[in-house]
């Protein structure tokens, strides 16, 4: 029975928070890799190496923002997993997903403003403010007219959840995605070979080489945070509003970068002091992004009072990053 097979597979993919990537692409990809028999922990280390920043003329530039399909194919081939891509609009998207799941495949689908529900608490995810957002689909129930999904877009919490999305909601958000960005669906399934040996060691070695290079340079993220402080201290709503989209996107990327760092650092930080420090940084960045979303949503007269809180958070983030980057250089990276 296909439903029993799927239930058996997906009972093995929790807890998602061991990755804590807070990146919609990887939070959909890594549970799928684990469910299909790959080495998701090794891939989580490799995932962190795709982020490199520079600060140029008031802008934070992220290089290699997303791995290309050839690199992703290689990663998944190492995991004995195949992937196929679909950018063709699916008129019968519900039936399309059901058929792929019935063939023991998982689907990563990019959606806009999709709302999922936690069946335990009844909480709903926040919409994505018009941005595209990856969600993993792994089951369905025709009786309740719902898909089983993995989503993490709780603004107030970084916890990943097994959630439910109604068929109607999927159609609505899929059509929004298609209108704004075009259809993007990745289908993953188990291949017929074997996983490459010792991926954990190979990927860690790649990570440490790039981290050492980063340690020998000035930190562009700290430069960008200092720039952000100077902008908010102007207390000028119009100036902040003009750059708000870039603030939202950049602090999302900064948060993702340090959560990825936390995953690897946690393997070596025996007393967990550095892990606690980076946790505080991540929480503050998340709180700061809440302020950005508030400013994006409400008019000027309701937002100026949020500027002082944003400045306090930015100063806390800056001092936390400086202390963290100073101490990380003292870690013994020998496994």
Write the layout of secondary structure elements.
Elements: H1 2-10, H2 24-35, H3 40-47, E1 52-56, E2 59-63, H4 69-78, E3 81-86, H5 93-102, E4 106-112, E5 132-141, E6 146-151, E7 161-166, H6 167-180, E8 185-190, H7 199-215, H8 220-232, H9 237-242, H10 244-265, H11 273-297, H12 300-328
Antiparallel strand pairs: 1-2, 3-8, 4-5, 4-8, 5-6, 6-7
Describe this structure in words.
The chain has helices at residues 2-10, 24-35, 40-47, 69-78, 93-102, 167-180, 199-215, 220-232, 237-242, 244-265, 273-297, 300-328, and strands spanning 52-56, 59-63, 81-86, 106-112, 132-141, 146-151, 161-166, 185-190. By secondary structure, the chain is an alpha+beta fold. The strands form two sheets. The chain has a six-stranded antiparallel sheet with strand order 3-8-4-5-6-7, sandwiched between helices. Strands 1-2 form a two-stranded antiparallel ribbon. The termini are far apart.
Give me the Rg, rounded: 21 Å
Q: Averaged pLDDT, please?
A: 81
Return residue spans where pLDDT drops below 50 for at least 5 consecutive residues. 6-21
Largest sheet: 6 strands, antiparallel
Looking at this protein, list some descriptive labels.
alpha+beta; two-stranded antiparallel sheet; 52% helix; globular; 335 residues
């Amino acid at each position: 029975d296909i439903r029993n097979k799927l239930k058996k597979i997906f009972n093995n993919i929790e807890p998602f928070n061991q990755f804590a990537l807070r990146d919609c692409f990887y939070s959909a990809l890594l549970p799928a890799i684990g469910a299909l028999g790959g080495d998701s922990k090794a891939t989580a280390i490799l995932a962190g190496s795709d982020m490199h920043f520079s600060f140029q003329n008031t802008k934070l530039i992220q290089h290699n923002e997303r791995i290309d399909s050839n690199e992703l194919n290689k990663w998944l081939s190492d995991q004995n997993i195949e992937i196929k891509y679909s950018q063709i609009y699916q008129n019968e998207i519900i039936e399309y997903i059901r058929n792929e799941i019935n063939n023991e495949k998982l689907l990563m689908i990019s959606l806009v403003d999709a709302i999922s529900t936690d069946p335990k608490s009844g909480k709903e995810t926040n919409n994505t403010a018009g941005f595209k957002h990856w969600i993993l689909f792994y089951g369905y129930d025709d009786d309740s007219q719902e898909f089983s999904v993995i989503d993490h877009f709780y603004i107030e919490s970084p916890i990943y959840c097994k959630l439910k999305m109604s068929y109607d909601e999927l159609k609505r958000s899929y059509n929004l995605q298609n209108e704004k960005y075009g259809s993007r669906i990745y289908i993953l399934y188990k291949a017929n070979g074997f996983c490459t040996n010792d991926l954990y060691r190979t990927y860690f070695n790649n990570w440490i080489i790039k981290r050492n290079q980063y340690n020998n340079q000035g930190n562009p993220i700290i430069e960008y945070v200092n720039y952000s402080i100077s902008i908010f201290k102007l207390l000028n709503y119009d100036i902040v509003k003009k750059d708000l989209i870039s603030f939202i996107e950049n602090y999302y990327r900064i948060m993702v970068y340090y959560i990825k760092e936390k995953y690897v650092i946690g393997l070596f930080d025996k007393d967990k002091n550095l892990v606690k420090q980076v946790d505080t940084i991540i929480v503050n960045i998340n709180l700061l992004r809440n302020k950005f979303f508030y400013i994006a949503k409400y008019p000027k007269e309701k937002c100026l009072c949020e500027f002082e809180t944003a400045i306090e958070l930015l100063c806390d983030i800056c001092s936390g990053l400086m202390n963290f980057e100073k101490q990380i250089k003292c870690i013994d990276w020998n496994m």
